[in-house]
Amino acid sequence: MAISEQVRAECRQLMDRYPQDRSALVPMLHLLQSEQGMVTAEGLELCAELLDLSTAEVRAVATFYTMYRLRSQGGEHHIGVCVNTACGLLGGDAIFDALSKRLSVSNGEVTADGRFTLERIECQAACTHSPVVTVDWEYFDQMDIDKMMDVIDKLEAGEEVVATRGPAVRGWRAAEKTIAGIDDGLGYKSDAIDSLMLAGLNQAKERGETAPDPKDF
Length: 217
Ligand code: FES
Hints:
Blueprint: H1 5-16, H2 25-36, H3 41-51, H4 55-64, E1 77-82, H5 85-103, E2 116-121, E3 133-135, E4 138-140, H6 145-156, H7 172-180, H8 195-206
Parallel strand pairs: 1-2
Antiparallel strand pairs: 1-3, 3-4
Helix pairs in contact: 1-2, 1-3, 2-3, 2-7, 3-4
Bound molecules: FE2/S2 (inorganic) cluster.
FE2/S2 (inorganic) cluster (FES) binds near residues 85 and 87.
């Protein structure tokens, strides 16, 4: 699928946000894989052309970060199961194994019907809410096997699924566009801040601790 004029214009919008054009490369790659389902050779060349980089430099970034797909993502929904230490110990490994069995796929594979990609993922910086699963990069906190099977049931039935922190799951490609920073009107609507998220901040306040002034660095 050719890259649309709209996406080319959105790439230029991303460039306008940064003092140096090349800083737009990371969001630009997310935008292009939202459009094309993966980072294609055409996408790599467009980034290189717009940012005055070589395709080798663009490819180096695209192959470094695990969120970029250089092969077709396939699945409509990306299911990421955190299996780092906190999540793994508290049930992440068991959730992954149950999902792998239910969907008949291994790590990184797409289901036969093309609907789901299952992946082991690294720490999502949400260890307070372990075990964490992401669906299209939306957080599902403190999950267990039964809750995760319920999520899959609903997605398979085409029902709305709402993440623990508020947003409805919209599909992997729509999420990639949001990650790119293109305004989808959904920003900052979540009010899902809980006591676990604020525990460190509250403890610092109780102790009278304050952050150092950046000017002192
Ligand atoms: S280990 Fe899973 S969010 Fe940190």
